[in-house]
Q: What sequence folds into this?
């Protein structure tokens, strides 16, 4: 996988994580509750990323184990490994994207409710 693709995937994952954090930060909740939610989300994302890394390392060991020398890996084995990494990254991105969307929906709903309450209080 090229550096550009790797950097793109990492950038996307970082953007999703930042988006989720911002969604939580701007949600109306107490500071303690907000910090707890951020900690839980980041811990969950770290655990998922650790799982992807562990799987990637296992796949790499398997691919290396098939050949007596890492330099003798076939093009197909390398392609399979790269495909595995891409799919795992895509799955993680999708899960994090859903979390961000859910957070955004929650923030939007709470903002609308607050605006309605302010509007009704003003009248």
A:
């Amino acid at each position: 996988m090229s550096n550009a693709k790797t950097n793109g995937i990492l950038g996307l994952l970082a953007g999703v994580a930042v988006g989720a954090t911002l969604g939580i930060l701007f949600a109306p909740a107490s500071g303690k509750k907000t910090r707890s939610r951020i900690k839980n989300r980041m811990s969950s994302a770290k655990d998922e990323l650790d799982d992807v890394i562990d799987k990637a390392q296992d796949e790499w060991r398997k691919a290396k184990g098939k050949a007596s020398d890492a330099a003798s890996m076939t093009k197909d084995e390398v392609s399979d490994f790269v495909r595995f990494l891409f799919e795992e990254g895509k799955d993680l991105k999708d899960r994090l994207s859903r979390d961000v969307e859910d957070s955004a929906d929650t923030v939007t709903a709470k903002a609308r409710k607050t605006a309605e309450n302010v509007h009704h209080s003003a009248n």
Remarks:
- DSSP finds three helices and no strands in the chain.
